[in-house]
Design goal:
elongated; Ribosomal Protein S8, Chain: A, domain 1; 2 helices; 5 strands; 5-stranded antiparallel sheet; single chain; alpha+beta
Length: 95
């Protein structure tokens, strides 16, 4: 069974690539044909980063991407743990 999730993120591609290893818990991440993939235990994950139109708020321009995440071989708890780690890696502080 594949767990398919979609996120919309305001992030540039270079910033996404910089944070991706921490998000998936691996130092090296493979990219092939626009897809990133890796394995974790018995599970396999695949990510696809899709560029969306930038958002503009007054003079601030925010790059946007859709992130499509497929998790194969993960039980519900493992998939939730993967997603929690992924989202934590991309959290930004505010004030």
């Amino acid at each position: 069974m594949t767990d398919h999730r979609i996120l919309e993120m305001s992030i540039s591609r270079p910033d996404f690539l910089r944070r991706l290893p921490a998000a998936v818990g691996q130092e090296a991440v493979r990219e092939e044909n626009g897809r990133f993939s890796g394995e974790e235990g018995a599970g396999r994950w695949t990510l696809r980063l899709v560029s969306l139109p930038d958002r503009q708020l007054a003079r601030v321009v925010l790059p946007c991407h859709r992130v499509e995440i497929d998790l194969e071989g993960y039980d519900t708890a493992e998939a939730d743990a993967f997603m929690a780690r992924f989202q934590r890696a991309f959290q930004r502080g505010g004030g």
